[in-house]
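I had to read the description of the data format several times before I understood it. Each protein is reduced to its one-letter sequence and a matching series of backbone shape codes. The format is easy to grasp once an entry is in front of the reader. For illustration, here is how one protein appears when written out as sequence plus structure tokens:
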Amino acid sequence: MPRDLLHALREGGYDVSALAPAPESDTDSDPFDHQPAAHAADPQQAIHLLLAVYHATGDPAIGLWLGSRMPPDLLGLAGLPAMAGPSLGTALRRIARYQKLLAGDRVELRRQGDEAWVCIRPSDPEAPDSRPRIDMELCSLLAFGRRFTRKPLHPLRVSLRIGRPAWHLRYTEAFDCPVRFGEPEDAIVFGRRDLALRLMARDRSSPAAPPASRDLRPAAASLYDVRSALQQLAGDRALSLAAVARHLDISERTLQRRLMAAGTSFRTLCEDARRELAGHYLSEGALSLGEIAFRLGFDDANSFFRAFRRWTGMTPGDYRRHAAPAPQPQPPA
């Protein structure tokens, strides 16, 4: 079950086991391989549980209540790279990219003049749980921004597709901004400057080693540092030499000089890091191909599939099956 939703329900005193039995597994969700029977971020489980809560409480604004109470650090697989981003805009783009890999609603960011729109595109707008689900998603994104920017973060307005309901004041209370009903889409509208707000999620308390001390390390050790940095930053789609240099507290020129002295290139090391991580994730068997693609900075599972086949000559599914431990023989009765 999704941890963020479970946490909010338990904090509200709900008996989760009584509200929703385990849903049936979906065997058709991965076009390339059989997914594990259960993993941490299954949107169908979240939908199943939310619908059960909606029917059990009879509260049409339950999504607002849940979204404002879900701890933003329990966003699942998208949470860690989002929290590690330098700004709110980067975090929201990472969450949106992760949502593209899943069957479910989409998060879309766009800019219109001085406004930044964060839109929810429901997978099934007419589903019975569509409204509480969208309310929950919008509120949880706002809660994430407020927590990790450590700012009040007042949106310019919220745009909702539904007509003005009898409980409309609960929307104003939840978002603390003007709310417009009967709009073409569901969105939070920020000022563009809001997306530039720095995130305070990362621990910046320990000082980085001075650049001079790192420059004095031998070439072999520095190459090891580069490989370690690439594995930590692999989820960034726009991974660059400059980003790795900043991570290592050295200049781009120094980093480039070290790579040349080691007889390798930045692109080669990026490919190596992602290939090694892919093999590790596939061998573990706990993540779907879409989740692995996200962790490695790919736009979708198809892109990861093609890259992995180029690296190894095998499909991810074939690799996973070969890496799986052989079944142990049962002792005789």
Remarks:
- The chain has 17 helices and five strands.
